[in-house]
Design goal:
Helix content: 40-55%
Mean pLDDT: 91
Shape: globular
Number of helices: 10
Strand order of the largest sheet: 1-2-3-5-7-10
Order of helices and strands: EEHEEHEEHEEHHEHEHHHH
Low-confidence stretches: none
Strand content: 15-25%
Structural class: alpha/beta
Number of strands: 10
Largest sheet: 6 strands, mixed
Radius of gyration: 19 Å
Length: 254
């Protein structure tokens, strides 16, 4: 897959998308979002890909929206841009395979929100993460109002969004905003190791578990969720893969 603003490759069963505008710290323009959505569609349909890592080239994960794109933009044009931005975020949130954000440097604004949309976040300890929107008379997108609160609680979410201050990857790990913080030179090894652990499991189970977790986060009632859990379990145990998994598990216990 050849793109101008992102790099895409597949390592074993792990897809990797690298934001590739390092000269502008991977600031996001319309082309980047369009290419990202195209790559997500292709990787989502590729049965060889069982997990996805998103990271950035150079010194940044992404510093957010490319402000050059907004010069002279009318309110209606801005609305259209925001709607396309939200659709891209939805595509990541609804991606059926597990996603990992490997935050290698600055993750600000919509770059930060891209990381929030992923299932798991691993950050370089020295990475700087934050939402500067209140400083530039803007507001967050990508579902961040809910996603940040789900991770760190309402009080801490308000502190982060109201102060608009950046925090390090190490601090983000301490408060639960990211899963792990590691030295930069270990970041991709850590992300790939996590992806490999995920890929060792059933792709079908992972798909159903991810859907169930999304439902549990508030999309449906507890009763509907528990009904789904029954159907998901039955769907898993009805596959040919199920008996193979049980046989392999029994062998490991010997």
């Amino acid at each position: 897959m050849d793109y101008e603003t992102i790099l895409v490759d597949i390592r074993n069963h792990v897809g990797v998308i690298r934001l590739n505008r390092p000269k502008v710290l991977n600031a996001m323009n319309r082309q980047l979002w369009t290419e990202m959505m195209d790559a997500l569609e292709a990787l989502g349909q590729d049965d060889q890909v069982k997990a996805l890592i998103i990271t950035g080239e150079g010194r940044a994960f992404s510093t957010g929206a490319d402000l050059k794109d907004s010069k002279g933009r009318t309110i209606e044009a801005y609305r259209q841009y925001l709607e396309s931005l939200q659709e891209a975020s939805r595509k990541i949130l609804r991606f059926e395979k597990p996603t990992i954000a490997a935050i290698n440097g600055y993750a600000l604004g919509s770059g930060y929100e891209l990381a929030l949309a992923c299932d798991i976040r691993i950050a370089a300890a020295e990475a700087l993460i934050g939402s500067p929107e209140a400083k530039v008379t803007s507001s967050v997108t990508g579902g961040a109002f809910r996603l940040v609160q789900d991770l760190v609680g309402p009080g801490k979410a308000k502190e982060l969004l109201f102060t608009a201050e950046n925090i390090t990857g190490e601090e983000a790990c301490r408060i639960g905003l990211v899963n792990k913080a590691v030295p930069l030179e270990q970041l991709m090894d850590e992300a790939v190791a996590m992806a490999d652990k995920i890929c060792a499991n059933s792709a079908f189970s992972l798909k159903l578990i991810k859907k169930g977790l999304a439902m549990a986060a508030g999309e449906v009632s507890l009763e509907a969720l528990m009904d789904y859990e029954i159907e998901a379990c039955l769907a898993c145990v009805s596959t040919k893969e199920r008996q193979t998994s049980l046989d392999e598990f029994a062998q490991r216990k010997k």
